[in-house]
């Protein structure tokens, strides 16, 4: 009971006022009896306030109840909603201060909520947390400090003492893309409508003509049958995309992928994009798999489209960590030869900063591109881009801008070097990685390259 009792700010202010009143009574003795009476009333009010806070309740129900609603898994890099439910069983109005002990990884000490509840009222506090690292997160207690209308003392209640929550790759982003795809609203997140250059010969259905359709697919007989007076509606033959094509995300876990951007590392961006892409590939009836590597071979999930495949990919990506060493591309090549026997689309998430760094690995990339359709995805340095766009004010800034332009030119050279050998490339800012990767995958699929 004593450990849950705290003094409110109002009580400290009143104590200061009484000290000042006794000082004044020492100068004016006539005030002393009034101050003593007020002090006695004050002590009685403290006793009443304590009794109201700790008064026995009927049955086993506590006078106040709180519960934190947190999912078993949090999505890395996304705003995850959390909820605290409050129930006041006191017969009077209460003011509450709620402090939630969130995991130390968030480095936040300002999570304080204040509210007021009437008798037998229930309220909900909603807030969001954005984790930036995968792994186990430990929540502490929900501390609720209750005050009566007198506001002299506080009683602390503690609920939900300790809970372990796993932070997984961005499954919220994956669900968002899946929902938008189901409602044909992918353009809202930067996914372009891909005009199909060619098509397979497997007929699927008849559908109304849409702008951009190949006029050679118009079914004139079906159009003639649907002609009604003056209203003629063109009908086209729709063909199925090639299905069951293997799609592998190759994720580099070497030192360059540890570079941070907006709280996340490049490895986390690659993992989040790989999860979304694998889900899109499965939605397109392709087979999705992953392979991670650095100086050692990491996790390998063979391409498949059976039920539960996205769950297996999610569990595998959850455990990936940067090894802070140079990646072995020879190991990558031999691992692909061993584990991937059928021609596949390989999306290599990595980062090259210099042309010399690329040329050391180029022989292995060319061998991969010989047996598979290889798409190399690496990152533009947005900080350098902002420095280039900013006007220089002095000699030092001119020097810094020149160095930044040199590094930006190196990135463009890397793209040209890869394209020279027929290797597909994407140079993208981290925040645009997912949309750009999906756009290229849909483009390659529409062109019939996979």
TrEMBL record:
Q: Which domain of life is it from?
A: Bacteria
Q: Which residues form the DUF58 domain?
A: 206-375
Keyword field: Membrane, Transmembrane, Transmembrane helix
What InterPro entries does the record point to? DUF58
Record field: transmembrane? 7-28, 34-54
- Identify this protein by name: DUF58 domain-containing protein
Native organism is Spirosoma rhododendri
């Amino acid at each position: 009971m004593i450990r849950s009792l705290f003094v409110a700010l109002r009580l400290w202010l009143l104590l200061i006022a009484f000290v000042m009143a006794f000082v004044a009574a020492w100068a004016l003795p006539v005030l002393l009896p009034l101050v003593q009476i007020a002090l006695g009333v004050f002590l009685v009010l403290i006793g009443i306030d304590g009794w109201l806070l700790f008064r026995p309740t009927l049955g086993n129900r506590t006078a106040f109840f709180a519960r934190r609603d947190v999912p078993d898994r949090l999505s890395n890099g996304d705003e995850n909603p959390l909820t605290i439910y409050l129930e006041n069983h006191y017969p009077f109005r209460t003011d509450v201060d709620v402090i939630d002990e969130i995991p130390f990884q968030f480095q936040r000490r300002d999570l304080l909520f204040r509210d007021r509840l009437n008798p037998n009222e229930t309220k909900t506090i909603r807030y969001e947390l954005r984790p930036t690292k995968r792994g186990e997160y430990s929540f502490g207690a929900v501390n609720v400090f209750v005050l009566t209308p007198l506001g002299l003392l506080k009683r602390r209640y503690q609920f939900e003492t300790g809970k372990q929550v796993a932070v997984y790759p961005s499954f919220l982003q994956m669900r968002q893309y899946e929902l938008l795809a189901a409602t044909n609203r992918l353009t809202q997140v930067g996914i372009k409508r891909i005009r199909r250059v060619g098509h397979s010969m497997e007929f699927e259905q008849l559908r109304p003509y849409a702008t951009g359709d190949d006029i050679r697919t118009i079914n004139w007989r079906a159009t003639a049958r649907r002609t009604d007076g003056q209203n003629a509606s063109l009908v086209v033959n729709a063909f199925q995309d090639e299905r069951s094509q293997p799609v592998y995300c190759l994720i580099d876990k070497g030192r360059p992928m540890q570079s941070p951007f907006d709280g996340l590392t490049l490895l986390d961006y690659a993992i989040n994009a790989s999860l979304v892409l694998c889900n899109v590939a499965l939605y397109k009836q392709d087979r999705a798999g992953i392979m991670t590597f650095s100086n050692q071979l990491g996790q390998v999930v063979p391409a498949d489209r059976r039920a539960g495949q996205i769950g297996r990919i999610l569990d595998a990506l959850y455990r990936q960590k940067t090894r802070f060493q140079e990646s072995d591309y020879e190991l990558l090549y031999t691992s692909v030869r061993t584990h991937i026997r059928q021609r596949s689309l390989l999306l290599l998430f990595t980062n090259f900063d210099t042309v010399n760094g690329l040329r050391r690995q180029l022989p292995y990339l060319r061998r991969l591109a010989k047996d598979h359709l290889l798409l190399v995805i690496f990152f533009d340095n947005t900080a350098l881009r902002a420095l280039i766009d900013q006007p220089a004010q002095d000699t030092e800034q001119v020097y810094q801008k020149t160095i930044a332009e040199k590094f930006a030119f190196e990135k463009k050279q890397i793209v040209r070097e890869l394209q020279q050998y027929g290797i597909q490339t994407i140079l993208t800012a981290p925040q645009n990685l997912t949309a750009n990767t999906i756009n290229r995958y849909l483009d390659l699929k529409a062109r019939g390259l996979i």
